[in-house]
Design goal:
Shape: elongated
Radius of gyration: 32 Å
Number of helices: 11
Strand content: 5-15%
Strand order of the largest sheet: 1-2-3-4
Order of helices and strands: HEEEEHHHHHHHHHEEH
Helix content: 40-55%
Oligomer: single chain
Largest sheet: 4 strands, antiparallel
Structural class: alpha+beta
Number of strands: 6
Length: 281
């Protein structure tokens, strides 16, 4: 029969579901369930296999809309596509949550410093997974990223860091073939202006605090070395005796790789005054 709104709504429910095919469009039909629910579908051949693809439920989808969709899908089949298999593969595609886990274990853990790993893990676990984790990788759009970024506008620094981490993650996803090339959804997301904090500690307050506080000589020496060498905090915290020569600090693995830092005489005096402990590097 020709499927129309009237003919479809006149179909009676039976004990088992059954199919009625449209007389105008070959392969276009409707399935009637015992519950009286009716769903449009299209049937076609892909190679030697017969496949069926559900188009939608009658009601939300009109008969004419379903017929138009059926023609569109049958046209895709004629061009060599297999819409049923495409939908199946998309349904089984990995989610953003799965991408986050793989990104952290296979990329960040292999290529980044421990401190960078910790920062990325915080962004992923606190922001990306809760908001976008259930999305399939291909389905994330610039709108989704922009909305996440906008919702964090009260903390512009963290909002920008989230976009930065996601940008790297989706670039890696493209490299792994999990997303089409050139479709990174973080592109053209305008970063928030970050206001630099300008708070300075005077020499008098610093030295008075070090003298009056109950600090070990190693803590005091660490502050002095930060002032005298310009090193990063972690470079001084992780400093070993083996890295120290009379004229330089030879850091084998800093944030920017191997570094050779001049050691002023005053800094050498600070180090020379520290007692060494047996077996402690």
């Amino acid at each position: 029969m020709k499927l129309t709104k009237r003919s479809v709504e006149g179909l009676e429910a039976r004990k088992k579901d059954y199919l009625i095919w449209d007389s105008d469009v070959r392969g276009f039909g409707i399935r009637v369930f015992p519950t009286s629910k009716r769903s449009y579908l299209v049937q076609y051949r892909a190679g030697k296999r017969t496949r069926r693809l559900t188009l939608g439920q009658h009601g939300p989808l009109t008969t004419e809309e379903a017929r138009s969709l059926a023609k569109q899908q049958l046209g895709n089949v004629a061009r060599g596509d297999d819409p049923s298999e495409t939908r199946k593969q998309k349904r089984m595609a990995p989610t953003v949550a799965a991408l986050c886990d793989r990104f952290m274990s296979e990329y960040v853990a292999e290529h980044c410093k421990p401190t960078t790993y910790a920062g990325y893990r915080t962004v992923v676990n606190q922001h990306v997974k809760p908001k976008l984790g259930m999305f399939q990788i291909e389905d994330v759009t610039r709108k989704d990223v922009a909305e996440l970024h906008h919702n964090m506008k009260a903390t512009p620094y963290h909002a920008n860091r989230v976009v930065m981490v996601m940008s790297k993650m989706f670039n890696v996803a493209e490299d792994w073939g999990l997303r089409s090339e050139g479709t990174n959804p973080t592109r053209r997301i305008k970063k928030y202006k970050e206001v630099e904090k300008k708070r300075y500690l005077s020499d008098e307050v610093l030295f008075a605090g070090l003298e009056c506080g109950d600090y070990s000589e190693y803590v005091v020496a660490a502050f002095m070395l930060l002032l005298l060498t310009g090193c990063r905090l972690r470079e001084i915290q992780m400093l070993k005796w083996d890295y120290i020569t009379r004229t330089h600090l030879e850091l084998p693995d800093s944030k920017t790789g191997r570094r050779r830092i001049p050691l002023p005489r005053e800094a050498w005096d600070v180090l020379d005054a520290l007692p060494r402990r047996d077996g402690n590097p």
